[in-house]
Amino acid sequence: MEVLSAHADIPEDNQQIQIVTVFDTQSDRYQLLRIGWNGSKHIFNPILHLDIIEDKVWIQQNKTDIEIGEELAFVGIPKSNIVLGLIPPHLRAYNPEYCIV
Question: I need a surface site. Which of 5, 11, 58, 61 has the fewest CB within 10 A?
Answer without folding.
Answer: 11
